[in-house]
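Lab notebook, bench 4. The sequencing result for the construct came back, and we need a structural model before the next group meeting so we can plan mutations. Quick request posted to the team channel:

Model the 3D structure of this chain.
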Amino acid sequence: MTGHCEADSIGEAVAVRVQNLSDLVRLATSLAGRMVVMPVYRYKSNSKVVYFLQMMYKDYYRCYGLPVIYYYVAEAEEKDPKYIIVRTDEAGEKIEVTDRVRPGWLVVPVINLAEKPVYVPVEA
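Done. Here's the predicted structure in token form:
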């Protein structure tokens, strides 16, 4: 590379696997204080399901806008969830994957995709 990124030189996004769904949700909710909603995307692959966030590097080796996929692979659920809800208090952190919201919980929308996007380099 010559110190900059060419659009056609980047095929897939950079993939970063997180340890658990809680880590992914914490990242998704990190901008909640600024009223920014970061959806979690989800697709099925074989008997697994992949939850992921898409973020961008900013000025990382001058590759402005390089997509980074943070992801977690889990066993596939019977239903397609609509939300991940989060509550933290003195007792700790509680995260649930659900189809309903609850008062007093932070809500992260889950966008269920029909298939894996071509730029996502994650196979489950």
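The mean pLDDT is 84.
Will bring this to the meeting.
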